[in-house]
Every structure is written in C-alpha cells, then in structure tokens.
Amino acid sequence: MMLPKGSSLSPKMFDLLNSFEENMAERLRKIKPPGKEDILCLTWMRSAMELLCEIHADIKVLITSLELPVCDWEDKWIDVYLDNSVKLLDICIAFSSEISRLKQGHLFLRCLLHDLESASPKKFIQARSSLDGWKQHMASKNPRLDNIFSVMDSLAQTLDLPKIKNSSKGKVLMRAMYGVKVVTLLICGVFAAAFSGSSKKLMDLPVPETCLWAQAFSDLQTCVNSKIRNTDPEKALVFLKEVESVDSGVRKVYPIVQDGVENPVEAQVLQKLKSDLEKAAGELCQGLELVAKEVDGFFQVVFTGRDALLSNLRLVGNVFEQGETSLNVQGPPVR
PANTHER family, from UniProt (predicted)? Predict the structure, then answer.
C-alpha cells in the first residue's frame, strides 16, 4: 500500500521495518484468547491495553532507529501525528471516566455486603436501598462514552496516510504508524463496546496482506468482533464478565432481602449468596484497578510522545530563528 511494487528500501530500512512488523505480529498473537469466553473480561482488557502501550513504545524506538530528525519530517506527517494523538488522549480520558463510574458503583456493593452481616429488618431496609442504588447507578449512562465512536470514526478516516515520494525513511515511518493506528482502533473499539454495551459501531478493518502482522490482526479481529456481536445486549448492563457476575448476584439477593429471612434455611442461602457476591465484587474491583492502571499508562505513552515532538519542533524553530538573527547582525555584505 505504502510500499508499492517496484519501490526499494536499503537493507537497513528493510530490516527495521520487518523487525517492527514481526514484533507487532507476535504481540497480537499473544493476546488472542484461547476461547471466546475470555475476551470480554477485565483480564483480557488489561492485556490488550498493555499491547497498545508496547506498540506505541515500539514506534518511538523505530523513529530513533530511523535517525529521522524532526526537522526532516514533512508538515503533513506532523499534522497526522498530532491530530491522532489528541484523539487518543480523548479516548483515554473517556475510558478512565467509565472505569471511575464503575468503581463508584462498587461503593453500593460494599454498603450492601456490610448490611447483610445482620439479618435484622432495619439492616434489610438499608440493604434494599443499596441494591436500588446499584441498579440505578449501573443503568445510568456516561456521556463521555457517546463521543468515543465519533472520535474513532474520524481516526479511521485518516488510515490512508500521505503518499511518500522521495524518502525511504518516511515510507517506513508511515507504514509503521499505519499498523499502530489499525491495532489501536481495534482495541479501543473493543473497550468502547464493552463499556457501552453496544456492538453497533464495531469496525471490521481490512489490512493489506503485505503487512507481516496482517494475518495475526485478522485472526484477532474476527475472534473479538464475533464474540461481541453474539452477546445479547438485553441481558447485560455492559459487555463485561465481571459486571455480569456481580449483577447476577445482585438479582439473586434482591428477593430475599425484599421478603426477609424467616427460617435458618433461608439464612444459610442468604449467606451463600452473600459470599458469592462478595467474591464477584472483589474480582470486579481488582480488575478495574488493573485496567485503570494500564489506561493511565497508555495515556502517558501518548502524551509524552506528543510532548517530545512539540518540544523538538520548538527547538528547531528556535534554532532557525537564531540563525536568521545572526545573519541580520552581520549586516549587508561588503561590496
């Protein structure tokens, strides 16, 4: 696509590109889950966000290896990079916001579990209040998520990177950036679907077979998209296994809390349900903490890369301005 037939790269450039694409293919193969049931869970999402951090770090290493200083970057490359980085930062902020919302819901579960320590009618009234609070909180929508899909659509529209004519280093850089963007769109699409409970905006991104990571990407995309599309949105608040487990426990506890406990058998059943719910709530809270850490790490990777580019651009501009000043100080040439 960006390296059409007939184009040639030096052995060094060819090796750099191959190494980058082979590493990305290996990373993609590692996060392909063994079973479809392992996709929509916080453990997989943590691994997927780790992948994004790694490949965005890889692109930084590639830029250094290319020995392509910012002063040699074309304006259109810089514009693409800066525009994309802003969109990725917006996506990270939205994901962090949704994770925080889910963690706030966990507060209702803590209150509920505390109230269930006693079978007194007063505590059951408080438990019902916590249950209602959980249900209402989880049914609410996060407005930040609404903007994610439009941001991702705009990112997808920039997949056709600028044509590079006379720079082999530029061709390698643009092709590597294309790969990073495609993988980023896939992972962010899964996150957006999992958090929003909607598969309507999932993307099926075709990639050229000439990319060494094409097969690994296609396998992963088919796996995750088919699982999400086969999930019934009417049966889940969000497409997350941990949230579904907690919600299932809440629905089982609710009728007992509402009707009260009248005999030892019902008391034993309640304690078993409470234990199961406590375990599910703990797994949800721990999973959210780990994913939140990775999302924050991805934000930092994107932000530091953008900041470094802007700093280099300012440095180049200052050097250029100083050069012009020194020429002016010398005055007109002697004739």
Answer: BPS1-LIKE PROTEIN (PTHR31509)
